[in-house]
Amino acid sequence: MHEQEKTYNQLAGQRVGRIEAISDGVFAVAMTLLVLDIHVPLRDAIHSEHDLALAFCSLTPKLLTYFTSFMTLGIFWNGQSLQFNHIKHSDRDLTWIALFFLMVVSLVPFTTAFLSEHFSYRFSIGLYWLNIFLLGLVVYIQWTYAWKKDYLDKNDPAAIAADKALRRRIIVAQALYALGALLCFINNYLSVGFIILVQLNYALGLTSRGRRKA
């Protein structure tokens, strides 16, 4: 089929670099927006060191959710970056999958603010977990689609290793996030604390270091 005979849908979304460019931009904005939910205590309400300390301590839910979400976005940015280290071609459908993923990324500041404002309610934990689940689901679909469409070199040992590592990591991580969300039925701080531990493990590669040493 000649180029001029192809439809718009067959021609659109073929530049992988465009996906990476908008992804970096959306992640940067989302990560920046997270901190805007943390406000310095009003000076008029502070009359002593004790008042200032209490006001700072009252920010604990916001600081915890900020840290959690920043780690979450960092982990998924790294995951998507790894995918596009190996994905060499694209099409309209892959582009839209990536855009849907970025739409879910852009929701993180909202679900973070919602959780920080309603930290004592299990519904807010559930909504936040749903956001993380959708991130994992869509990024998994993105990789699976690219793999099935042969948009990467399946004969490359590095791509094969990435395929196994990405699938395993997403599935295990989502199971751990779900467990963390369920812990809200015991205590919300325990729930968020567990999710943070999961994120620290993946960010610092603690379990993988242990396996290498073994």
Helix and strand layout, with pairings?
Elements: H1 8-11, H2 16-35, H3 49-57, H4 60-86, H5 92-117, H6 122-148, H7 157-182, H8 188-204, H9 206-213
Helix pairs in contact: 2-4, 2-5, 4-5, 4-6, 4-7, 4-8, 5-6, 6-7, 7-8
Quick structural overview:
The protein is an all-alpha fold and about 210 residues long. It has helices at about 10, 15-35, 50-55, 60-85, 90-115, 120-150, 155-180, 190-205, 205-214. It has one domain.
Number of helices: 9
Overall morphology: elongated
In total, the number of strands is 0
Strand content: under 5%
Q: Extract low-pLDDT stretches.
A: none
Q: Largest beta sheet, briefly? A: none
Radius of gyration: 20 Å
Helix content: over 70%
Query: How many domains is the backbone divided into?
Result: 1
Any key phrases for this structure?
single chain; 214 residues; mainly alpha; 0% strand
What features would you describe in this structure?
- There is one protein chain.
- The chain has 214 residues and is mainly α.
- The chain has helices at 8-11, 16-35, 49-57, 60-86, 92-117, 122-148, 157-182, 188-204, 206-213.
- The radius of gyration is 20 Å and the shape is elongated.
- The mean pLDDT is 88.
